[in-house]
Amino acid sequence: MKIFAINPGSTSTKIALIQDNTVLFTKNVSHDASKLAEFDGISAQLPYRKETILQILKENQISLEDADAFVGRGGGLIAMEGGIYHIDKLMLDHAARGANGIQHPAQLGPQLAHEFAQRYSKPAFVVNPPDVDELQDLARMTGIKGVYRTIHLHALNLKETAIRHAASLGKTYQECNFVVCHIGGGVSVSAHKYGKMIDGYDIVGGEGPMAPTRCGSISVSNLLRYAKDKDLKEIQSLCTKNGGFVSHLNISDAIELTGRAKKGDKEAEMIWNTMIYQIEKAIGSMAVVLHGKVDGILLGGGMVHSDDLVKQITEACQWMAPVCPYPGEFEMEAMASGAIRALTGEETVKTYTGKPVWSGFDF
């Protein structure tokens, strides 16, 4: 089966034509930043991005006439269970306006997939969008009445890594317990119990380990002291743009950071090792959530190409469960695999309700 996958980013859109497990064509389609700035909001970029993609396909003589389905990265949606979803009118409306209150290029994923599906009269899906929420009840409560935890993680990559590793064990995802990490520009650490991601961190809100551009968890009192003479937007940017490596050394590249450390930069070395230390702590926390019944600790994402990172985490965590690296990202393959599972009936396709998967306790 041929699947066309679409993953919009801030100034580019990744596209891939995938047949079964083979990538036939892939391209990171660049968009002119000054042109994007002309549009009033993310969804207004839809016609421009679509035409740019069509032009790239034409230049590379790629036909989508025989594509079996189209799949887009989900974005702007209300919290939902993980899985594969039809792209319907309600989902398109929510994606277009960013119903979850977060403006992100991923909102264009469902819209672009729908546009291409309409053009070629084929089905369109989203697979494990960023707003997946499968938290167990104990993971939702906080020490402030009326404030409840939510999570924002790399759900697509996390779940695909778990699905693939379960298959390597001769099992299904629903038969296993894993601690799954995505270690890249952002760092997600999550607990997966029998096919559900029952706990994790709100990495958009500043939870979890430090990352290249993210501050990670810090004490409220420390933050309040730091924020005393700061603008709110400046503080919020520490959660996703200006925290982590950027705050300390004004860089976001792990290769540059580790290069500095090897040349004797003690601060760079400390920042690198601190991030790894925090990831190890988070892994231990999620292993406890699973009551120690862990079939594997899975590491995905770009920074897993670092032998040092894998070595440190393995040494710290292998007593809990085998540590298994899956370097890099396979978001495009993950979306295509989900679409194939939908088309073959291996996984039931869900309907987006637009209602939060959780709306409060009954007390």
From TrEMBL:
<dbReference type="InterPro" id="IPR023865">
    <property type="entry name" value="Aliphatic_acid_kinase_CS"/>
</dbReference>
<dbReference type="GO" id="GO:0047761">
    <property type="term" value="F:butyrate kinase activity"/>
</dbReference>
<comment type="similarity">
    <text>Belongs to the acetokinase family.</text>
</comment>
<keyword id="KW-0547">Nucleotide-binding</keyword>
<dbReference type="InterPro" id="IPR000890">
    <property type="entry name" value="Aliphatic_acid_kin_short-chain"/>
</dbReference>
<protein>
    <recommendedName>
        <fullName>Probable butyrate kinase</fullName>
        <ecNumber>2.7.2.7</ecNumber>
    </recommendedName>
</protein>
<keyword id="KW-0067">ATP-binding</keyword>
<dbReference type="InterPro" id="IPR043129">
    <property type="entry name" value="ATPase_NBD"/>
</dbReference>
<keyword id="KW-0963">Cytoplasm</keyword>
<dbReference type="InterPro" id="IPR011245">
    <property type="entry name" value="Butyrate_kin"/>
</dbReference>
<keyword id="KW-0808">Transferase</keyword>
<dbReference type="Pfam" id="PF00871">
    <property type="entry name" value="Acetate_kinase"/>
</dbReference>
<keyword id="KW-0418">Kinase</keyword>
